[in-house]
């Protein structure tokens, strides 16, 4: 069972926390991580691309010329896909790119992502972050003290002062413990979890 040090916001050791081997000692399989991340990115796609088929191009109701005797190839509409200004054949239409991922697979991928952060020594647990007022400069100083450049900070309960102070700090993202996912964990090199959030994540994934 792995044990991590708990730091305060000044990066002083204040305790330790035992991590569940069921969550932080899982075999990391890249193909599962890839599948889950691809599914999450696919679900974010708008899928609003669209072109006009013959059903949607205006005009073309009249036959351009008679069928025989002109020397031209026969034509029934000036909005044919082979004409300039015509329709598009088999062009993209609005669609959803989502595909199903089983809940067990999503949970397994999250455990793998958390395990990888622990193995890489990129997991930090904080006692908490105290923000008595909304001040970006104060939060930026805390980030500097902790040595963070690009990090995902996971919290259990929303602190309005913390959320508003952190929203304009580049490279830092705050995420509720119940919204933690494999993609965000892998996207940010450093994973910072507040102590109560770490406990909450372990309880949810057991």
UniProtKB/TrEMBL annotation:
This is Large ribosomal subunit protein uL4. InterPro entries: Ribosomal_uL4 (IPR002136), Ribosomal_uL4-like (IPR013005), Ribosomal_uL4_dom_sf (IPR023574). NCBIfam families: rplD_bact. The lineage of its organism: Bacteria, Pseudomonadati, Thermodesulfobacteriota, Desulfovibrionia, Desulfovibrionales. The gene is rplD. GO terms for molecular function: rRNA binding; structural constituent of ribosome. Part of the 50S ribosomal subunit. GO terms for cellular component: ribonucleoprotein complex; ribosome. Residues 57-78 are annotated as: Disordered. Gene3D superfamilies: 3.40.1370.10. One of the primary rRNA binding proteins, this protein initially binds near the 5'-end of the 23S rRNA. It is important during the early stages of 50S assembly. It makes multiple contacts with different domains of the 23S rRNA in the assembled 50S subunit and ribosome.
């Amino acid at each position: 069972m792995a044990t991590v040090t708990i730091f305060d916001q000044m990066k002083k050791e204040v305790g330790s926390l035992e991590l569940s081997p069921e969550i932080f000692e899982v075999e990391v399989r890249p193909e599962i991580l890839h599948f889950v991340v691809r599914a999450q990115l696919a679900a974010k796609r708008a899928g609003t691309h669209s072109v006009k088929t013959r059903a949607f191009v205006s005009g073309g109701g009249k036959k351009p010329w008679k069928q025989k005797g002109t020397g031209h190839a026969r034509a029934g509409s000036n909005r044919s896909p082979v004409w300039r200004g015509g329709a598009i054949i088999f062009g993209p239409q609005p669609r959803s790119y989502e595909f199903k991922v089983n809940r067990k697979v999503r949970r397994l991928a999250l455990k793998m992502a958390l395990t990888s952060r622990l193995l890489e020594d990129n997991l930090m647990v904080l006692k908490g972050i105290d923000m008595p007022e909304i001040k970006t400069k104060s939060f930026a100083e805390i980030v500097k003290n902790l040595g963070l450049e690009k990090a995902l900070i996971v919290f259990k309960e929303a602190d309005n002062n913390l959320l508003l102070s952190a929203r304009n700090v580049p490279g830092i993202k705050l995420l509720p413990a119940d919204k933690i996912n494999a993609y965000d964990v892998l996207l940010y090199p450093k994973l910072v979890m507040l102590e109560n959030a770490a406990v909450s994540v372990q309880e949810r994934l057991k």
